[in-house]
Structures are given as C-alpha cells and as structure tokens.
C-alpha cells in the first residue's frame, strides 16, 4: 500500500514567524506518528526559512525510536545540505533541483545535463545507507536516465497534475503520470510523488499501480487548521488506503 510521509516544513515556517517556540516541530512529529503516518519529511533550505538543522537532528533522534517509520530529507545537495545528511543519516534522501531563492520546488531534474554531478552524490548517499530518490517531472526519457545515475526511486513532481485537477482537467494530465510511473518501474525504480496533492486530487492519483509513497505537507497542514493535525493525517490515510494496493 502507498505510504504517507508528512512534510513538517509548514509547521516550522509558522514557528519561525515568532521567537516563542510554537508550534513545536517535535510535538507535531509526535502527533503525526501517533495518528498513523508512515514517516516524516523535511526540506532544509540554506536560508533556514523553515526547518533548521537542529530540527533535522532532533527528528532523526525521534525516528530512531520508531524503526518501522521513515525519515526523508529532501533538498538540493549543496555542501551544507550534504553535511546535514551525513550527520542525520535519513532512511531516504530526495534530491531536488531547487535554487536557494525559490519559494518552493517547481521542476524536476534534467538528469542528462546533471549526470556528472549526481552520480558521485548518489554514490555517497547510498554508502551512508540512504535510499536515494530524484525529484522528477513525468518525463519518461529523463526518468529512465535516473536509473543510470544510481537512483533507487523517483519522486514525481505533481503540481502540474494538481493545477490541471483544480481547473477540471485532471483526467487529461493523469495518464502522463501513469506512463512515468510505469517507465520508472520498468527501469527498476520505485515511485514516490509529491507537491500540491490534497484530499480532493489524491484519490485519483493513488490509482497509479505500485505507488510507493506520497509526501504531503502544505495541504495537510492547511486541513489541520480545520480538522486538527491528527484528524488530518487520518483523513489522508483513509484516502490512500481506499486506493489499490499495487
């Protein structure tokens, strides 16, 4: 069954607007774990606008007490990012080609152009015991190249699907993701997905066979304002578990 990794960046972003320590990222992590999430995702950025290195290390310690759950750290492998990963040793490292000034990730890797950079980084991450996933557009040719540079999985960038769904055209775009997932699996890669997935567009998306994991943060935290954090996690799990088991 598809797993749910809850991205806690938005909790940290709200905390960082004041200097009083609330909301507490660790408390949020404990709540989502108790509610049944399969893991936690964070995306530390160079400007520390949300998740800070201290958060990453505290979460690594927490997740070490839950060996059945997964810690996923995502980001562009700049030197500071790699230093964090070397210390935290997450279960999964998702490499994202975002620049420091970006508000959020908005495209996948051009593996053909970045292969020489990615290969040694992926090799090091795997030597640390991390599964490596590359953030990718649903481009079949680029996804096949992800296997050539040593990636274990791809994370499909789903904002185009979410935007099309909101405009009434989700069914037009979704086949691209089915083809991309099938191409990844044919190349021996696992398939994750994330970006702007929510309770409305997720049911159709989790029909993709063999989808390993969805990473959801912004929409889930927004829903938590109405539902409460634990209830929001359970609502997303209910949607995911209503899909096929792949």
Salient structural properties:
48% helix, single chain, globular, 8 strands, alpha/beta, TIM Barrel, 246 residues, 11 helices, eight-stranded parallel beta barrel
Number of separate structural domains: 1
> What's the CATH topology name?
TIM Barrel
Low-confidence stretches: none
Overall pLDDT confidence: 94
Classify the helix fraction into a percent range: 40-55%
Report strand %. 15-25%
Structural class: alpha/beta
Tell me the Rg in angstroms: 17 Å
Overall, the morphology is: globular
The CATH architecture designation is Alpha-Beta Barrel
The succession of helices and strands, N to C, reads: EHHEHEHEHEHEHHEHEHH
Largest sheet: 8 strands, parallel, barrel
Strand order of the largest sheet: 1-2-3-4-5-6-7-8
Fourth CATH level, the homologous superfamily: Aldolase class I
Q: Counting H and I runs of at least 4 residues, what is the number of helices?
A: 11
Q: Which CATH class applies here?
A: Alpha Beta
Distance between the termini: 7 Å
The count of DSSP E runs of length 2 or more, i.e. the number of strands, is 8
Question: What do these coordinates show?
Answer:
With 246 residues, this protein is of the alpha/beta class. The protein has a single domain, classed as TIM Barrel. It has an eight-stranded parallel beta barrel with strand order 1-2-3-4-5-6-7-8, surrounded by seven helices. Helix 7 runs antiparallel to helix 8.
What's the structural blueprint in terms of helices and strands?
Elements (H helix, E strand, L loop, with lengths): L2 E5 L1 H7 L9 H10 L4 E4 L10 H12 L5 E6 L3 H10 L3 E4 L15 H17 L3 E6 L3 H9 L4 E5 L1 H8 L3 H17 L3 E5 L7 H4 L7 E4 L1 H10 L1 H13 L5
Parallel strand pairs: 1-2, 1-8, 2-3, 3-4, 4-5, 5-6, 6-7, 7-8
Helix pairs in contact: 2-3, 6-8, 7-8, 10-11
């Amino acid at each position: 069954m598809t797993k749910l990794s809850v991205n806690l960046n938005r909790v940290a972003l709200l905390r960082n607007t004041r200097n009083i320590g609330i909301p507490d990222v660790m408390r949020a992590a404990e709540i989502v774990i108790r509610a049944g999430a399969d893991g936690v995702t964070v995306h530390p950025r160079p400007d520390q606008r949300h998740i800070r290195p201290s958060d990453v290390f505290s979460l690594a310690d927490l997740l070490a007490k839950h060996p059945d759950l997964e810690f996923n750290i995502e980001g562009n492998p700049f030197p500071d990012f790699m230093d964090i990963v070397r210390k935290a040793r997450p279960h999964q490292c998702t490499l994202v080609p975002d620049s420091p000034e970006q508000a959020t990730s908005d495209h996948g890797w051009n593996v053909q152009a970045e292969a020489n950079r990615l290969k040694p980084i992926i090799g090091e991450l795997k030597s640390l015991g991390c599964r490596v996933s590359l953030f990718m557009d649903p481009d079949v040719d680029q996804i096949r190249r992800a296997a050539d540079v040593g990636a274990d999985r791809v994370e499909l960038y789903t904002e185009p699907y979410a935007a099309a769904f909101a405009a009434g055209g989700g069914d037009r775009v979704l086949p691209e993701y089915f083809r991309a997932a099938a191409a990844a699996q044919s190349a021996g890669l696992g398939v994750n997905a994330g970006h702007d997935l929510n309770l409305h567009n997720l049911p159709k998306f989790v029909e993709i066979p063999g989808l390993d994991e969805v990473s959801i943060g912004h929409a889930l935290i927004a829903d938590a304002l109405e539902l409460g954090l634990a209830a929001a996690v359970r609502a997303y799990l209910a949607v995911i578990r209503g899909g096929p088991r792949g």
